[in-house]
């Protein structure tokens, strides 16, 4: 495990996550994805990356906010571990680092959304102690009504 490193990705390197990000969502055109990432890094967002030597093998976005029902919290977003590194306990190591980081920033809770067609992630999140408290609804307001 000595070759693995976890850290916050510098804003100027945000495009480095695109290959893993595309594993979750192949629908978003790369130009739009790059525009969105540039906006995100200027908002209340950080991206945590896990490296095996110089290769990025895991990504997790974190949004910070204060919610009336739970207090200061983080919402983890676009969590991906490279396929060839899955089922090796790295997700647990990754999330332990993320929790410690969030606590150091004063967070009291962690929230997330998971795609309904990804039951393997659901099992992981249950094992991490997450519970389902509601549904995440989405309405596309763009004229084309497409999700991308």
Give a written overview of the molecule.
With 148 residues, the protein is of the alpha+beta class. The protein has a single domain, classed as Gcn5-related N-acetyltransferase (GNAT) (Aminopeptidase), CATH 3.40.630. It has helices spanning 18-24, 30-40, 90-104, 119-127; strands at residues 4-8, 45-52, 55-67, 71-81, 109-112. Helix 3 links the parallel strand 4 (71-81) and strand 5. The radius of gyration is 15 Å and the shape is globular. It starts with a strand and ends in a 21-residue tail after the last helix. The model has no long low-confidence stretch (mean pLDDT 94).
Properties at a glance:
Aminopeptidase, single chain, 148 residues, alpha+beta
Concise description?
With 148 residues, the protein is α+β, with helices and mostly antiparallel strands. Helix content is 28%, strand content 28%.
Alpha plus pi helix count:
4
Question: What's the architecture, going by CATH?
Answer: 3-Layer(aba) Sandwich
- Give the percentage of residues in beta strands: 25-35%
Query: Roughly how many Å apart are the termini?
Result: 36 Å
Give, in spatial order, the strands making up the sheet with the most strands: 1-2-3-4-5
Helix content: 25-40%
Mean pLDDT across residues: 94
Structural class by SSE content = alpha+beta
CATH topology type = Aminopeptidase
Assigned CATH superfamily: Gcn5-related N-acetyltransferase (GNAT)
Identify the overall geometry: globular
CATH class: Alpha Beta
Task: Domain count, please report it.
Answer: 1
């Amino acid at each position: 495990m000595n070759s693995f490193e976890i850290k916050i990705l510098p804003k100027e390197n945000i495009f480095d996550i695109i290959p893993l990000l595309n594993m979750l969502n192949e629908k978003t055109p790369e130009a739009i994805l790059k525009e969105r990432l540039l906006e995100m890094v200027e908002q209340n967002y950080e991206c945590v990356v896990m490296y095996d030597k110089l290769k990025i093998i895991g990504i997790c976005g974190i949004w910070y906010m204060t919610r009336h029902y739970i207090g200061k919290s983080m919402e983890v977003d676009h969590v991906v571990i490279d396929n060839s590194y899955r089922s090796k306990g790295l997700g647990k190591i990754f999330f332990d680092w993320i929790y410690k980081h969030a606590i150091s920033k004063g967070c009291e809770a962690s929230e997330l959304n998971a795609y309904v067609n990804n039951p393997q992630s659901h099992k992981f999140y249950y094992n991490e102690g997450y519970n389902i408290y509601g549904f995440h609804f989405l309405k596309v307001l763009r004229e084309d009504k497409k999700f991308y």
